[in-house]
Write a structure and sequence with these properties.
Chain A: It is found in: Cell membrane. The complex is a heterodimer of chains A (321) and B (245). Chain A has 321 residues and is mainly α. Chain A has helices spanning 4-27, 30-55, 63-80, 85-107, 113-132, 134-137, 164-187, 189-199, 201-205, 211-237, 248-260, 267-282, 289-303, 307-315; strands at 143-144, 151-154, 157-160, 239-240. The model of chain A has no long low-confidence stretch (mean pLDDT 92). Residues 240-245 of chain B have low confidence and may be disordered. In chain B, the strands form 2 sheets. Chain B has a 6-stranded mixed beta sheet with strand order 6-7-8-3-9-10, with helices on both faces. Chain B has a 4-stranded antiparallel beta sheet with strand order 2-1-4-5, with helices on one face. Classes of the chains: A mainly alpha (321), B alpha/beta (245).
């Protein structure tokens, strides 16, 4: 059980990470500034995935569906109905909530491999739906959200999400909110029950916990976080396309989380950042960059079985959440 | 006195196998009841039906005047039925304290208060004598201690009916002595249903014994009656007499 000293250390560490991210806004060169903003939004996606995969032990292969529910939930009404940025963001979250509740109710009747397959199938249905309604979504080609629609009026001021600094800081804000939310969840009573379900569901049931309800809550929380990432992606980067609903975007968060460390709060950021740059750098030299990613994953399995932060926690810093 | 637990015509079939076959059973409050029988007699299946891990094929289960036949397991636990597993299933990666804190935080209406959780969890660990090992990882504890932790998790639920499924399996003689004292102490405020192979434990603890064989109740009575019962001796091939002598 964590004492008060640990609690302080945990919050200090997470606060320091946020502070560094904010500071980077002022020092990063333009290119990396843009990349990091994107990585932060994708890291939110990974954190949502990690909540379900890392803490509850439910391996989903359908999280692209939740991300793109947010993407389309925000992008479509903004593009077609002329919604403002704030209602569009809420629309994205609402879409994520609805989809994850529906999927959770159905998919949680299964477990293990069946859960993987069911979530993947639902995600494929979602992906094909975005293609089918190409008239509104423009399918793979996607929609580009015009600059003038991506502004928030605050009294006399306007917050322009296309401005690099604003965009970066909004990404940091979303990341920080999600980070502290997941931190609070995993340290809460509900979070401890989720870990117990991961470790031994049958035993948890026999301690009087409704494991289905707890898992459903986790699926919805995870879905909403991923949808928030999707909605933010649409609004900050102005692009809404079917690629984000494809199976690739269901597998990526799994890789990011495995790389950074499942069931660690900061692992998803580390994994996303690392992998994004590996792909970014190697694809500059060779078109076979997936080969490098593959080799990296093999090395990871050999030496960092629990991901980078998972291994660090196991060997050195036991207090890491 | 009204019974705490009764089953009527309770059956569970696995394909053609009648694991539990038309069992009428009744348990008085405050009792220590032992359930014995050869391997495969249906003892574990029977208690699994009672605590809701399996659904019965037919029959009814009544706990404290309420029909719980169709109630999901977690709600039965909340009514006061606690089950400790035959195969030790503590949360190996969590500390002993966290293992016990999990059931505690659910039973407390004020589960968010850290102090209340801590107090009740340490209390449960003290009762089984594991307080000094609260911060050890459960999976790293000696086997006998894991069995005790399993019992502590049951106790932390503050049960009205505690079902212990072969709790002394794999314990040393001295550990068994302590365990007998512990069960007596538990029985002062809970009813205990004990599945047990060790006849010494059964004879010392149980006020009444129910003997299962091939899914049915073969005999029921006081330890002396069971010892004298020839049908039981046949089912057990004399082991009761040896152990009881």
């Amino acid at each position: 059980m964590s004492g008060d000293g640990t609690t302080t250390k945990v919050y200090a560490l997470h606060g320091a990470v946020i502070a560094v991210l904010v500071a980077l806004n002022f020092v990063l060169p333009e290119y990396h500034h843009g990349v990091l903003a994107r990585v932060l939004v994708l890291a939110v996606f990974a954190m949502g995935y990690n909540l379900l995969f890392g803490y509850v032990g439910l391996l989903s292969l359908g999280h692209a569906m939740f991300f793109s529910a947010g993407l389309y939930g925000a992008g479509l009404p903004l593009y077609h109905l002329g919604w403002g940025v704030v209602p569009a963001f809420a629309g994205g979250i609402g879409a994520g909530f609805t989809v994850s509740l529906f999927i959770g109710l159905l998919a949680l009747r299964t477990s293990g491999v069946a859960f993987m397959i069911v979530t993947m199938m639902f995600a494929q249905v979602f992906y094909l739906t975005t293609l089918y309604f190409g008239e509104w979504t423009r399918g793979d080609e996607g929609l580009v959200l015009q600059q003038h629609t991506r502004r928030i009026a605050l009294g006399s001021e306007t917050l322009d999400l296309t401005n690099p600094a604003t965009r970066y800081l909004m990404a940091v804000a979303l990341f920080a909110a999600t980070l502290f939310a997941t931190l609070a969840i995993v340290r809460s009573r509900h979070g401890r029950v989720l870990v117990a379900i991961r470790e031994n569901e049958e035993r948890t049931k026999m301690l009087g916990y409704d494991t289905f309800a707890n898992k459903l809550a986790a699926v919805v929380t995870s879905g909403v976080i991923c949808a928030a990432a999707g909605a933010a992606y649409a609004l900050l980067f102005g692009y809404v396309g079917s690629t984000f609903a494809s199976v690739q975007y269901s597998i990526l968060p799994l890789l990011w989380v495995l790389l950074g460390g499942a069931a660690t709060t900061l692992g998803p950021l580390l994994g996303t950042l690392f992998m994004y740059y590996v792909v970014d750098i190697t694809s500059g030299y060779t078109s076979a960059y997936m080969l490098v990613v593959g080799a990296m994953l093999i090395l990871l399995v050999l030496w960092f079985r629990k991901g980078v932060l998972g291994t660090v926690r196991e060997r050195w810093l036991r207090w890491l959440p | 006195m009204t019974a705490l637990l009764t089953t009527k015509g309770l059956s569970r079939h696995f394909g053609g196998l009648r694991a539990v076959d038309n069992v009428d059973f009744s348990l008085e409050p405050g009792e220590i009841r032992a359930v014995i029988g050869p391997n495969g007699a249906g003892k574990t299946t029977f208690v699994s039906l009672v605590c809701g891990r399996y659904a019965p094929s037919s029959g009814r289960i009544v706990f404290d005047g309420e029909d719980i036949t169709d109630m999901p397991a977690h709600l039965r636990v909340r009514r006061g039925i606690a089950y400790t597993f035959q195969i030790t299933s503590v949360f190996a990666n969590l500390s002993a304290y966290e293992n016990v804190a999990l059931p505690v935080q659910r039973t407390l209406t004020d589960g968010r208060s850290r102090r209340a959780v801590r107090q009740s969890a340490m209390e449960a660990l003290e009762r089984v004598g594991l307080a000094s090992r609260a911060h050890e990882q459960a999976g790293a504890l000696a086997y006998g201690h894991q069995r005790l932790l399993e019992v502590a998790m049951g106790l932390a639920l503050k049960p009205r009916l505690l079902i212990l499924d072969e709790p002394t399996q794999g314990l040393s003689d001295s550990e068994i002595e302590n365990f007998i004292a512990l069960v007596r102490e538990i029985a002062s405020d809970a009813t205990v249903l004990l599945i047990e192979h060790n006849m010494q434990v059964v004879m010392e603890l149980a006020r009444r014994i129910t003997v299962f064989d091939a899914g049915k109740i073969l005999a029921e009575g006081s330890p002396a009656e069971i010892r004298a019962n020839t049908a039981v001796q046949e089912a057990y091939l004399g082991t009761v007499q040896e152990a009881g002598a």
